[in-house]
Design a protein that fits this description.
16 helices; cell membrane; elongated; transmembrane helix
Length: 314
């Protein structure tokens, strides 16, 4: 038996560690710390039903007499409430865990919707070209001329008036995902279109056409993989933007209702109590939101630098 046959193949994890991305990640302390913080926040949010001492969705576990208890490091606190309680008597630590999970879910789902719409339009626009390309890109220009928050505020206000507050509150998460997702698709469409315009003139695309492959297969199986690097970078930034958009809309009363707390609705519910002394109701969820968005943006910056070939020449 040959000696080469006895050498085990390296595992996928070892190949990732030895790759350029793996080396860049290990040598970048900011990226490592940001990833650790993001993973910790995500795991705690996903395991909220197991970690949280109280269920903020269960009215039987909420007592209005426990409202506005301060965090445990302030005099007058109740030891069972680590970060204190909000104005409804809910444990703030438990509510933040559930709210972070909800904000992350809205952000990820909204970005997935953005990516599906934007990538599809970008592929079709760049590959087909002509009048269809001009029409789709003019639609993207029109969409980009409007602020995401402005479009979302108008849409959600109209939806709330049409369906009523009760029905709107029940399906608020779907409204938020839809409006944030539809508002930001041009970012993906423009990036993918630029890649398609550069790739469709190359020899491997001509070879695929000669072999009889259809346009859909060429776009999805051959051209799209060359667009993944910028798509990953955009997605990282867009997740942070979607979380901020959700928090802003919830703060304005057009997002998640108080009965389904997200980070934005938590900040909003405690805003009226800042000057009365119960600052923690707004401040602590605000700090969590800032840290979450910051580490996502830092990871996006690192990923952009790693996947940018212009920074690795020479």
């Amino acid at each position: 038996m040959s000696i080469l046959n006895t050498i085990p193949e390296p595992s996928r994890w070892s190949r990732i560690k030895k790759s350029k991305i793996g080396y860049s990640f290990r040598s970048n302390p900011v990226a490592v710390v940001s990833m650790c913080i993001f993973v910790c926040i995500t795991i705690m949010a996903l395991l909220a039903p197991l970690i949280a001492p109280f269920d903020p969705y269960d009215p039987a576990q909420i007592d209005i007499m426990n409202s506005e208890y301060p965090p445990v490091w302030i005099d007058g606190a109740d030891p069972q409430f680590l970060f204190g309680t909000d104005d409804q008597g809910r444990d703030l630590w438990s509510t933040i865990l559930y709210g972070t999970r909800l904000s992350l879910m809205i952000g990820l789902c909204a970005v997935t919707l953005q990516a599906v719409i934007g990538i599809s339009i970008g592929l079709i626009s760049g590959y087909v070209g002509g009048r269809l390309d001009s029409l789709l890109m003019r639609l993207a220009d029109i969409q980009l001329s409007f602020s995401t928050l402005m479009v979302a505020i108008i849409f959600l206000a109209v939806a709330q008036a049409m369906f009523g507050s009760e029905l709107f509150s029940r399906y608020a998460i779907y409204f938020l995902i839809a409006v944030i997702g539809v508002s930001e698709w041009p970012q993906y469409a423009r990036t993918v279109r630029a890649t398609v315009l550069a790739e469709k003139k190359k020899e491997y695309v001509d070879s695929a056409r000669v072999l009889g492959f259809g346009p859909l297969r060429i776009m999805v199986r051959h051209i799209l993989p060359n667009s993944l690097s910028p798509i990953f970078v955009i997605s990282t930034v867009q997740v942070a933007n979607a979380i901020i958009s959700e928090a802003s809309l919830s703060f304005l009363g057009l997002g998640m209702p108080p009965s389904q707390p997200s980070l934005g609705s938590l900040i909003s519910s405690g805003f009226d109590y800042i000057f009365s002394g119960s600052w923690w109701i707004t401040a602590i969820p605000g700090v969590v939101l800032v840290v979450l968005v910051l580490v996502i943006n830092l990871l996006g910056d690192w990923l952009r630098d790693v996947l940018n070939p212009k920074l690795h020449k020479g």
